[in-house]
Design goal:
Chain lengths: 427, 441
């Protein structure tokens, strides 16, 4: 059995890895003393993968928006009923989520880990989809879409993505639309399943107080495929190098305007440790520019232009990368003007090294805190894995990142030409 | 100390003085330690907004760190320690909460005393606010009044939660429970620096308080923290004269439950929404300190506490009417809510299916699968609480509010002992009070 162990002494963590002959990698991160055991089985197939070439075929396959998410719902159905019932019987909670770039099936339990894990391994490898169950699911997913239509935080975010991108599928709601899900049928779901749910396109991550050897043995016994599959060619539509529009708004029943704004990256490396470095740099910059300790935040707060809800983040994936910051304000446009002006001034005066050092120290502690939660570990781990990086590399990045590099990223990312603002106004 | 000896997450009362109880929760499995301080008040209209304002103003500055920015800088120096404060509503009690979480010393070799620095900050925020002419800074008070008004108004933004809160509010008209967690906009308007400062003095002198210290904290460090807390009530000695009486923590007031049967109310509210939200409010007539409470927890699990529940299986899986549907208990006031997001025209259909599920339990139609699974799911849930410091603290805080004395183990054991007959018995006491529907305008 091909296994490796990595020790991270400084943070008192260990990671065990096993590579199955199909190419599937399994990671175990033991957490001694934890009650909860958490396992996730993920595939590199998310909402943005609506165009691809199936290995062995010549032509491009195009599928309706929302397929990855729809498949996630349908996989829980098995020949002998819903797999959820079996998890529930063991007292565990199964779940799944679909993101832009990947879909993850998971459960958390406190007892009978082996039995639960077997259910996970089996159901993800055994789809059972019927015409009838697909139709039934349209009602449920339809209500999920409806719920998000009434969620102003969700809307203001997706409207911003729509301002950043003209064609990139990241701009479309993960669940698709009421119209697009109508086009989904059994054959489409099976085609996507057969293309993206090959073990070589997947990963397993287990976090909790478990014995890694038995986890690996179980995986070895349960993975049915041994052959590796050629990589799926993923196709993304041509995207102009300019943002789609710099302002967008919508009316919803909210008490005061909600806003999100940010910068879209045009050229970037989205793979491996470079990607983690860039992500870390932009996040540090956001903290330096508009974090709770910044002049800018305190000015906006003091003038009553922002409140406690103000927050920021940066996303970087295969084909898109952007910063997003916002919250609630009586005057989002004024907030935008002040932020852009302040970034412009900072470009003139330059970043302060002591601020950078302080923020880096704080970010290290915050990252460390995530290791308290088995869910959080799995979540961050998988996101990094699908970027061909390892979560524990972040600690290296925090150690080695340089002020010069952060300066370079500052000049590159915070370019007013790539800026957009999204507002949700009260009706 | 050997790490394995620290595995049990149990709150132990280590000290009690001046109406302050100090609890320690020893555990070595987390990367961080945390300190939580809670001040309790009865939920009442004249205090609700003032109580919400107190932490909002206190977090703006202390004597030694007089601005929000100074505090933020201090937190960054503590390796990004996380600080927050606010109010929590548990039944008809309003609790003012202060919290700080920071990296455990073993992960930041070369520096230590993070506990002391974090504790001092929390202490100063509570006890040494920055003042102007002997009262709170007017600038801070006015800004936070605005923020609080906005916060209260912004509750329409989250429609899922709004539909639950509004149902309870309509249901409990005339009872203290109808008061929103943060009070009311018109009451915020009446607050000024002077009256708020007077309220603050009363708060710090008389509100019963609990302190929970969680993590891998040495005894001498604990001891020092307790010594400091002993000064909390007498910080401002000149104002201490007159010797206000410190309240004593009481359990749930029996008044919360004195509600004789009423006719079911129907409430419809219109907003600009795509999805209708149906919420049903129930009186369980089962107080949290009664033996039946554990059966009520099982009842709720069977009805709508997860994917195995009757509501999920029938409203979502069988009828495809909803993406989400759940039932949830309000433990301290003895209420239960069922809520679901549906197409507006499906309201009656959904209502029929939901009420039928309650009727099924009342009639004893509980399968072995539903019963066993619910017990297993609840047990997993209880054990899982032990992996999160906030959940551990909240569990023990809830015990004190309910006037019960469970730990994770005894709670799980009592759940295990609940029989189907117990569930049917509590089902009989559950009465529908209010049907609330949020629909399109």
């Amino acid at each position: 059995m091909n296994t490796k162990t990595f020790e991270y002494k400084k943070i008192n963590e260990v990671m065990h890895v096993y590579e199955h002959e199909s190419g599937l990698e399994t990671f175990v991160i033991p957490k001694k003393g934890y009650s909860k055991k958490f396992a996730a089985f993920g595939t590199h197939f998310g909402s943005v993968n609506s165009e691809f070439v199936v290995p062995g075929e010549d032509s491009v396959t195009k599928v309706p928006d929302g397929v990855a998410h729809f498949l996630e719902h349908k996989l829980f159905e098995q020949k002998d009923g819903s797999i959820m019932d079996k998890f529930s019987e063991l007292g565990s909670s199964p779940n799944a989520y679909t993101g832009f770039s990947h879909t993850v099936y998971l459960f958390s339990c406190t007892d009978k880990f082996g039995e639960n894990f077997q259910l996970l391994l089996d159901f993800v490898q055994n789809p059972y989809i019927t015409d009838e169950s697909v139709e039934k699911e349209k009602g449920i997913i339809g209500q999920e879409i409806r719920m998000y239509q009434d969620n102003p935080r969700w809307r203001v975010f997706f409207n911003l993505l729509g301002a950043f991108y003209k064609n990139n599928p990241v701009r479309i709601d993960i669940a698709g639309t009421l119209e697009s899900i109508e086009q989904i049928n059994k054959d489409i779901l099976y085609k996507c399943y057969n293309t993206f749910y090959h073990p070589s396109n997947m990963v397993i991550c287990v976090v909790g107080d478990v014995d890694h050897n038995s986890v690996f043995e179980q995986v070895e016994k349960s993975i049915k495929t041994s052959a590796k599959m050629p990589e799926v060619k993923r196709i993304f539509p041509e995207e102009p190098e300019e943002i789609n529009k710099n302002y967008t708004e919508q009316n919803l029943s909210v008490s005061m305007p909600l806003f999100q704004m940010g910068f879209r990256d045009i050229r970037f490396n989205s793979k491996g440790i470079d990607c983690l470095k860039r992500e870390t740099a932009v996040k540090l910059l956001l903290e330096m520019i508009m974090g709770r300790s910044s002049e800018l935040y305190n000015r906006l707060y003091g003038e009553g232009l922002i409140n406690n809800t103000f927050d920021f983040d940066y996303t970087i994936e295969e084909n898109y990368a952007f910063s997003v910051f916002g919250g609630e304000s009586r005057d989002p446009v004024k907030v935008k003007d002040i932020i852009l002006d302040s970034i412009n001034k900072l470009a003139g005066t330059g970043l302060e090294k002591n601020v950078y050092e302080r923020v880096r120290k704080a970010a290290y502690g915050k990252f460390l805190r995530q290791l308290n939660s088995v869910e959080k570990i799995s979540h961050v781990f998988l996101a990094a894995y699908f970027k061909e990086a390892n979560m524990f590399d972040y600690f290296d990045v925090y150690d080695k990142i340089s002020f010069e590099y952060v300066n370079d990223i500052f000049r590159e990312h915070f370019n007013p030409d790539n800026f957009a603002l999204s507002v949700v106004n009260p009706v | 100390m050997q790490k394995d000896l620290l595995l049990e997450e149990r709150a132990r009362k280590v000290s009690s003085f001046n109406g302050i109880d100090v609890y320690q929760i020893r555990t070595g499995k987390f990367k961080t330690n945390s300190i939580n301080i809670f001040f309790h008040d009865d939920l009442k209209k004249e205090n609700a907004s003032k109580n919400a304002m107190v932490p909002a103003v206190l977090r703006r500055g202390t004597v030694s760190l007089p601005t929000f920015k100074d505090i933020a800088l201090y937190l960054e120096e503590l390796y990004g320690a996380s600080f927050d404060c606010g109010v929590i509503k548990k039944g008809e009690r309003q609790i003012i909460h202060f919290y700080i979480e920071f990296v455990s010393d073993e992960f930041i070799k070369g520096e230590d005393n993070l506990f002391e620095k974090a504790f001092n900050l929390l202490y100063d925020i509570i006890a040494k606010p920055v003042l102007e002419n002997g009262i709170f800074k007017n600038e801070y008070v006015e800004q936070e009044k605005n923020n609080l008004k906005n916060l209260i108004e912004s509750r329409i933004n989250d429609k899922v939660q709004y539909a639950v809160d509004r149902c309870y509010e309509e249901m409990c008209k005339g009872e203290p429970f109808e008061i929103y967690d943060y009070g009311a906009v018109e009451d915020v308007g009446k607050i000024d620096s002077k009256s708020l400062y007077e309220h603050y003095l009363n708060f710090i002198r008389t509100y019963p308080a609990q302190v929970y210290i969680c993590g891998n904290v040495a005894d001498d460090v604990m001891h020092k923290a307790i010594q400091m807390l002993e000064n909390l009530r007498v910080e401002n000695k000149t104002l201490q004269e007159g010797g206000k009486k410190i309240n004593v923590l009481k359990g749930v007031s029996p008044d919360s439950f004195n509600k004789s049967e009423v006719k079911t109310k129907n409430v419809t509210e219109k907003l600009n929404v795509n999805q209708g939200k149906l919420s049903l409010g129930f009186r369980t007539n089962t107080p949290p300190d009664s033996n039946d409470y554990y059966a009520l927890v099982v009842y709720n699990g069977i009805l709508g506490g997860g994917i195995h529940s009757k509501l999920f299986q029938n409203v979502r899986e069988k009828a495809s009417l909803a993406y989400y549907v759940f039932s949830r208990l309000e433990k301290f006031k003895g209420l239960m809510v069922v809520s679901s997001g549906i197409e507006i025209e499906n309201k009656d259909k959904a209502l029929d299916i939901i009420l039928d599920q309650l009727e099924q339990i009342r009639a004893g139609n509980i399968s072995d699968y539903e019963y066993e699974t619910t017990l297993n799911v609840i047990e997993t849930g209880i054990k899982s609480l032990r992996d999160n410091q906030i959940s551990i603290v909240d569990f023990y805080l809830s015990q004190t509010v309910a006037g019960t004395n469970d730990d994770f183990k005894s709670f799980a054991e009592k759940i295990r002992k609940v029989t189907k007959e117990d569930v049917i018995r509590v089902a009989d006491k559950i009465k529908l009070d209010t049907i609330y529907f949020l629909t399109r305008s």
